[in-house]
Task: structure prediction
Amino acid sequence: MEVKLTVDGKDIEINNFVQRILAGTVIGAVGTLNGVEEDCGEIVVKIKRC
Result:
């Protein structure tokens, strides 16, 4: 599993523990949504503050 974090265009290094927490949280939430296959290969999330 690979997790990449970019903030304001800058890549932020995150350790394996944080990668697992972020991935588990996102995969768990997205996996409950209709239309998402259980074995999807990639999830992209973009958050923009307004």
Q: What stands out?
A: The mean pLDDT is 93. Residues 3 and 20 are 8 Å apart (CA to CA). The helical segments are 16-31. The first strand starts at residue 5 and ends at 7.
